[in-house]
Amino acid sequence: MSVKTKKVKEMTLDDKRVIEVALAGNPNTGKSTLFNALTGLRQKIGNWPGVTVEKKEGKKRCDGFNLIITDLPGTYSLSAYSLDEKIARSFIIEGKLDVVVQIIDASNLERNLYLTTMLRELGANVVIALNMMDLLEESSSSIDVNKLSKEMGVPVVPMIASSRIGIDDLENTIESIYQKEQKPIRITYSKEIEEVLANVQEILMSIPSIPSDFDSRWLAIQIIQNDPEILTFLKNWNVNKTIIEKLLSFGREDYEAEIIDTKYEFITNVTSKALKRGEEKLTRSDLVDKVVTHKWLGIPIFLIVMWGAFQFVFAISVPFMELIDMLFGWLAGLLVDNINIGWLGSLLGDGIVGGLGAVLIFVPPIFAMFFILSVLEDSGYLARAAFVMDKIMVKFGLHGHSFIPMLLGFGCNVPAIMSTRSLKNNKDRMITILINPFMSCGARMPVFILFAGLFFGAAAGTVIFALYILGIVVAIFTAILLRKTFFKGKSAPFIMELPPYHTPKLRSATVAMWDKGKMYLKKAGTIILIGVMFVWFLAAMPFGGVEYGGPDTWLAAVGTFFEPIFRPLGFDWRIVVALIVGFVAKELVVGALGTIVGGGGSEEGIKDAILADEGFYPLNSLSLMVFTLLYVPCAAVIGVMRKETGSWRWTIFAVVYSTVIAWLFALVVFQLGSLMNLGL
Amino acid sequence: MSNKVTKLDQLEIGDIAKVITIDVSGELRRRLMEMGLTRGTLIEVIGKAPLGDPIEYKFKGYNLSLRKEEANKVVVEH
Lengths: 680, 78
What we know:
The structure holds two protein chains of two kinds.
Chain A: H1 3-11, E1 17-25, H2 31-39, E2 43-47, E3 54-62, E4 65-71, H3 83-94, E5 99-105, H4 109-122, E6 126-131, H5 133-138, E7 142-143, H6 145-152, E8 156-158, H7 167-177, H8 191-205, H9 216-224, H10 230-236, H11 241-248, H12 253-274, E9 275-276, H13 284-292, H14 298-338, H15 342-360, H16 363-379, H17 381-395, H18 403-409, H19 413-418, H20 426-435, H21 445-456, H22 460-484, E10 496-497, H23 506-540, H24 554-566, H25 573-584, H26 588-597, H27 603-612, H28 618-630, H29 635-645, H30 648-676
Parallel strand pairs in A: 1-4, 1-5, 5-6, 6-8
Antiparallel strand pairs in A: 2-3, 3-4, 7-9
Helix pairs in contact in A: 4-12, 6-12, 8-9, 14-15, 14-16, 15-23, 16-23, 20-22, 21-22, 21-28, 22-28, 23-29, 24-25, 25-26, 26-27, 28-30, 29-30
Chain B: E1 5-7, E2 16-22, H1 27-34, E3 42-48, E4 55-59, E5 62-66, H2 68-71, E6 74-77
Antiparallel strand pairs in B: 1-6, 2-3, 2-6, 3-4, 4-5
């Protein structure tokens, strides 16, 4: 039993019997819906040890017993080639589970049963939760539940998880079988394979160090298929080197194909008895697909849906953001003005309350984004969006699934980077993460609006549009560069299920929003807060007498120190300070400039002060906007990058790379502008 | 079906064919087979993405998308 499950056990209040359950299943079968229906909101979300794959645990008090349920990653197989499969398989092998519940989409029985055969060969105690019975009926097909149960040798519970139908049955079934040992299923392979299996098993039997709970037939089947993890197992059991070599020499590539063929033959035999298919014709989903992926309509529909989602996120969140901004601004001012001990007022007001505000202001767009993303995913459209965009994305060294994170980046890069979890191939995912900050997030807009509005008059809109395009171009250029250097190789195959369209459920979207939003608050929130506090510290030091953010503070000293590097871009120390503050969060740039150039804190005051100041003119404001566009968006992005790439090295690479790119582009803008003597 | 042997990416929308084998080794073959593209499976072409690639197929009662590159590895009888 792992340490983690022990902790959850202590959380249970009574000492009823505890049954440990893992929830397995293919993607798109309603697995999260079932998990939520079983555990409610009492979930612990974390990561599987050492990786960024999400792990959810929950518990459920039942009549006379308690369930501890672990949600395994959704997989089609357990052959341990992908990270998700490895996690699921080793948890089943090592987790000392009582029961594995496999959720199956009843309208897609055949392919779902493939995973069942693997679970059963592994020797897990399986219960099949036969979900989406309503959709099955709609398609005029039917499943003989008793026959299915008999053929697969496991209990089968029909259910409609989204309407909570069948949940009680499932719990009672788990309780009734958890102490019974199911005999592993035995699929008979070809004569040749059976002979090889017998030979391998004979050798395995003679090795005393193999734990008794490992089924030797299962091990033999993995060995002859060249299973990538077998070597690790054998080494862990201190198996003699020559014996390992002998065992591995039985592996042959052809066996794998034959074994998969035979498993599906076994399944076809089961379904021929238990499943009665309705007349094969195009389903409603197929007809929707004809329109949604249509040659001429496909891309316009895609753009409209994306535009709608984007509008939804920002229309919903902007009023809340303004409210939070106002509330915290007011509260901070109140504290600064009314606490007589100067530094304390500043610490509480500018530092802590201001810092909290900088974290909380992101909450509305992030929650709205997770909500709409979950709606799109549940509806089935997200898979089609990737399908429609794949070819374009591949040209740029990306993948069909890279599009959504790029689009979300225009809102906020933090949730955008988190949404790259839909990319299962590590190279595709790394590239998609690393280019994301170049998609100009909403927080950069105020800087653009201020300077483009001040110095470019009627051309302001064009300037801002050109900045967005520049960001996209740099992103694409970077993607191609990374694909050709550090992440060589082809984009992952696009073997993707296009699940039937469903009406999204409000409940599951709300739960997804809450779960993921909470995670953002915890992780990114801490980092923003620390960053804000740090800037406060520099802006308030040295103690006593200095005006917060004024020319005598340490912050100003830092600005002056870095000024020489930025002089070729046309920046003096005050702009450098604003950019350093912008490192924490772009939202703070305009405010910081206000503090430094004066203007009484109001937007209009800042404008007047900048116009009257000789240190600001059209050309350096243009290079300032270019720099702001391209360098690190905020401390939260650094934090989330570290978390999602799992590597400080790549995070630091992204920070350094984007800052250098920003510096170079701003330099070109400023120097070219000066040379051409545009009169800016 | 006229019993002509071809590759999956050569079929037109609406065509139905029968899988003979996967003409590639290693991980790609395993993944395609695990998704159900095994010997004898009947497969129908549902549609293509607006830019002609990837392609949507239906078999064993569900829909799957494959790029032309991957579909080209599936030998079918049509």
